[in-house]
Amino acid sequence: MTSLVPLLALGALASPFKRDVRASAALPDLALTAGQVRVDHGQLAAYARICGFPCTDPLPLTYPHVLGFPLALRVMTRRAFPLPLTGLVHTGISITRHRSLRPDDRLELTVYADELRPHRRGTEVTMVTEARLAGALAWASHSTYLARHRTAGNSDAPRRPSSGPDALPAVVSWDLPGNLGRRYGVTSGDLNPIHLHPLTARPFGFPRAIAHGMWTFARCAARLDDADAIHVRADFRAPVLLPATVTYAAAGDAFQVRGQDGRIHLTGTRSARRPGSPPG
């Protein structure tokens, strides 16, 4: 995998200068594309192991996100991108897979920033990643990332329902080691300091390193039926402080991850793509 350290370092250096964070700021009119993207089979195997996918063919549902992450970093480290890269928190993702992808497929990946909006804890951005095969859209995701900062209590900022979701029936418990963030970061390229060590997480308000939202989501996705056409959405409701023991729970098309104290960290839903909906 191409080293992402230079981009991460650039983002860290530029972050202190991005202080005027506003939802009304302009996003860069920029879409970055990479063609004929090859899958590194060793990296893919390591990713499948750490996330619990039983095989690598077809590609795990969440893996194109990893392939597109270098492009996303290039967008988010541009001077015109208004949010600081360092400390961004992944708050949610939706993925639509229009067809199964194989490790030997040569994909065209496109990534762009789509929307800024106020959040009760700061400002949120949507990053879009699209994967095409032979010109046809095969996979797409919409990820939201939060830059946390003081707000004026904007009434338009989204708030979580105070009652919270109902607890689903428990399926399995997972013991997450303290070095999970470092291990997944090396595999995925996402070396955000909030995931790596307590000392690097504390400046951003976390007492310990937190698990990657994409690891938590991928671990859930590994348990879903591998339908050819699928739409999955997850909301990262609360960070998972490492180390931890969490429970995966599911009923029907809904799933969630919760802590030993009952706190819900992730909620998600799965559905088949609507019949007749165009692939792009």
Automatic annotation (TrEMBL):
Pfam families: MaoC_dehydratas. Residues 183-247 form the MaoC-like domain. Belongs to the enoyl-CoA hydratase/isomerase family. This is MaoC/PaaZ C-terminal domain-containing protein. It comes from Streptomyces albidochromogenes.
